[in-house]
Structure formats: structure tokens, C-alpha cells
Amino acid sequence: MLPWRNGVLALYLASGLSLSTLVSRLPAVRDALGLSHGEVGLLLLCMTAGSFASVSVSGAVVMRLGSKRTLRFAASLTAIALALVGVAAAGFNSLAATGVALVLFGVGNAVWNVSSNVQGAAMERALGVPIMPVLHGFFSVGTVLGAAAGALGAALHLPISWHFAILSVVVLALIVTGTRAFRADPSNQGSGHSNSSLLADGWREPRTLVLGALVLGMALAEGAAGDWVALALADGYDAINSVGAVGYGVFVTAMTLARLGGGQILKRLGRVLVLRLSAASTLAGLLLFVFGPSIHTAFAALVLWGLGVAMCFPVAMSAASDDPMRAAARVSVVSTIGYGAFLGGPPLLGLLADKIGLLHALGYVGILVAISFFLAPAAAEAKKNPGTTPSPSTPKN
Question: What residue ranges are annotated as transmembrane (predicted)?
Fold first, then answer.
């Protein structure tokens, strides 16, 4: 059990590391290509398109191949695409090539997300304890490490072509070593017809759709921070690029701490109360960041913001995975809806920022966060039918 747990933790860490490496050096990508806020937003739509297209079918892929094989392919694609972004932007100064690389990054990252949550949920059921917050906490550990490396790279003026290539090698090493200990999960159905039926059912289930809507608002808040905090500090508060990267690091550090301690909090307070407290903290942080008077209040706001968004994804993934046989289908549905906001919202915020300013554009995210507060009851544990057979404590090899 211990090697399996460590392998899953390594893959979550690698996922956070790859994404944070990209977003923490986004100002350098922008400078290399000479883009405005709106043009950065349009460029990020390339990653959004790849992610959204792949996450919608990722559940079927996981059910067909199993989460282990799917993870190996998707994570490797993401790592390779990260290196290609650096070469395209800094090496060739090519907007088109950078866009293609971001499409590939988005495809790999989205499928990685779904398959890792299916594997993580299988391990959570086997252990019998809420470990999903800790798994997502290790994703956040990866983002902290990536943000720290990004701040250092920005301060040293390290070319992103070298920076991204080095981190890609690190991520690939974590993938190879981590997936060796993975176990099979019960999501691999083997029948394309039954897989299609399960996915179709997922899109018709009210609870699954409400879970997706719940994730939508909070995912937008998390995605907006990931894509725009560094630039918002640089442009809205006149901070230098390295301070912007540090600000993103503060956000992900707060998110990491909340997730690493989230299992015990979740056991004590339950899913619904945890999600409502999370939405309230996120909204407070957003408003303080947008309307705060100084860089110091902005950093305090990032702490509240990070603490707030920390628990939504892991709790929603656990809720979507209550039934192991339908976990891949339901996680795919919830992830598709969430990714629509997580990846589609931030680029649109860039277009809005050209009209009203980046800080004020971020303020509109609070509307969907407030809606998420009222949708929290959808994550309550589903009542089990007394006549059903309980799921096995350990997945079969």
C-alpha cells in the first residue's frame, strides 16, 4: 500500500510542478512574444481548447485503458509540451508554434487530471480515509516548488527555453518512477458500449451536474489566480516580475497548507460545511485583492484566496467518485464543467481586462464563487442502498 500511495503522491506533485512552471513564467512568455493582456488571453485559449476537448472524452479513455496507462501517456505528453512552449516562445519567438505547444499541453494536462483523480479515488476507498485533499495538497506542493523555481528563474533572467526543458526532465522522471507502483482500478470496463452508456448517464444525473456547477465557480477562482495573479501584481500594483511570481507562490502555499491539513478538517466538519467556508474565504480574498489599498493587503488577500479554493476540487472529486464503477464517468463530467471555467474563464478575463483593467476584471469572479456557496449541499455523501454490495476494500491487481 505504501509504494502505491507514494506513486500517486509523486504524480500529483509532478502535475502541479508542470502547471506552475508554465504560469509562473507567463510574464516572460508574454515579453518574449510582445503580447498585450488580450493577446495573452487569446494565447491561453489554445491551452483551453486542448484541455476542454480532451477532458470531455477522458472518462471514456480511462474506462477503456485504465487510469495507469492513461496517466503515463497524458503526463508524458504534458512534460514534452512544456519544453516545446519554451523553445517556441523564447527560441523561435513564434506565436503560432507556442499556440500549438499549448494545445498539446492542454490535452495532456486535462487527461492527466481526470485519470489521476480516478486512481486517487480508488486509493482513498482502499484506505477508508479522506486522502484526496492530501493528494491535491501534493499537487499544490508541486505548484509551490514550481513557483519558487519561477521566481528564481525570473530573478536570474533564465531563458524559459532552458527553464522549461529542465523541469520537463524532472517531471518525466517522476512519471516513470511513480506509475510503477500503481494498482488497477475498477473503472476499466472494457466495453466501449457500456462506457458510452455510463458517460451519457453521467450527463443526465442532477447531482453530478450540480457538482459540476459547484466546481465551476471555484475552479474559475483557482484558474484566475494561476493565470493572472503574477501579472495583476506586476501591472495593478506596479510590482516587478519576480514579486509577481512570489505572489503566486504565496497563493499556492496557502492552498497547499489547507489541503495537507484538509483531511482532518473534512472528517470533523463534513463536505458541505467545508465547501461553504471555502467559498466565503475565496470571496473575501478576491474582494480584498481587487480593492485593497496596498501590496501588503494584496498578499494578505492571496492567503485568504488560496485557503478558500484549496478544498473544492478534492472534495468534489471524492463526491463524484462515491460509486467506484461510475467514478471515471462522473469525474469526467464534473471535470469537463470545471475545466470550462478553470481554463476558459481566465483567457476571457484577459479580454475583459483590456476594457476595465485586470484587477476589476478579477472581481467579477466573485459572482460565481457566491453561487458555489449555495450549491455546496450537492457534495454531501450519497445515501447507500442497503441492498447493494459494498465496494471492495482493496482494488484488484
Answer: 41-63, 70-89, 95-114, 134-156, 162-182, 209-233, 239-261, 273-292, 298-320, 327-344, 356-376
